[in-house]
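Milestone M4 deliverable, item 7.
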Amino acid sequence: MAAPANSPIALDISGFNRGSSDTNSLLGAMLRAHEHVSDLIFSPGRLPQVEAMGQLLTVQAPGMAPFTADDTRRIAADLIGNNKQAITTLREQGSCDVSYALPGVARFRVNVFIQRGSCAVVMRVIPTTVPTLSSLGLPAHLASVAELREGIVLVTGSRGSGKSSTLAALLDCINQRRTCHIITIEDPIEFLHMHKRATVHQRELHSDTPDFIQAMRAALRQAPNVIFVSELGTPEVMEMALEAAETGHLVLSSLNAGDAASTVARIASAFPAAEQRAIRTRLIKAFRCIISQRLLPHRNGSGRVAVLEILKSHPRALHCLECDDRAAVVDLIRESAAEGMQLFEEEIQKLVQAGVVDPEVAAVYANNG
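Output delivered:
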């Protein structure tokens, strides 16, 4: 169902009375409002909203008035449940992350936060099945990540660029191909990975472990072959990830960074100036693949298409990154297509030539991401 940006969607949720017993029925109805819902938003003073294909759409129902502060607080309470740590975090820090499942329909990554003294909620929709590289339209050669035995693989991009889905597909490749031990540390758990050839243990912050650092330290004593950390959000987590990679583990994680060349600088800049050169050198030696990702609107309005920039470990790459020479990194990627490397600009141009993306849209994403 297509709709202009910010236009209301008529939604039949008759009988919804904003009590806890109807929160699930509201979520289910909102998911049905559009075939490409990625986020659900609840804010005091507004009707519920969904984000679909990058557009924020207002949901309407017969007789439904904008939410009050009590309405959003009640929805937040239903989603948090009896997670005492999340309640404490919300009270002390003003926001918290939890996971939530709508049985048989969807899972959500939920962020509850305080604004103007009241609760607001944003829910990211997570598919109930683990995606594959092919289902995401990603290059099949990325499955070679499963052959790595140590080092760091990073998936970078902005919020909503599909990093979590790509990492889930990479983990599934390892799960299907290797007899190994995988430990994930997530905030919160998104995709549920069943044991296949690998044994998979998934740990969620607050419910299974108090923080990333303690979980990482414990992981190094739990005999993993592969460690997945949902995000390298702090220098301490970055340091622990480097240590794990340097001691023979394969580490997968995500980072908010614009492209492959800027990822190393982004990590180094998180540390004090006196430590940055040493961190840069360690990371350059440890990384095996940096996958940067953007999602572009499809020309026919049917959804979004993933575009990847891929930088792999290479003797020239080590030198270029050590010198912080972005132009040289770009040249290396351009000249290494046969080795599975690729540039944003060239991949976007291919989509334009194939009629998948409008040239005007391509120009915006190629330059600004």
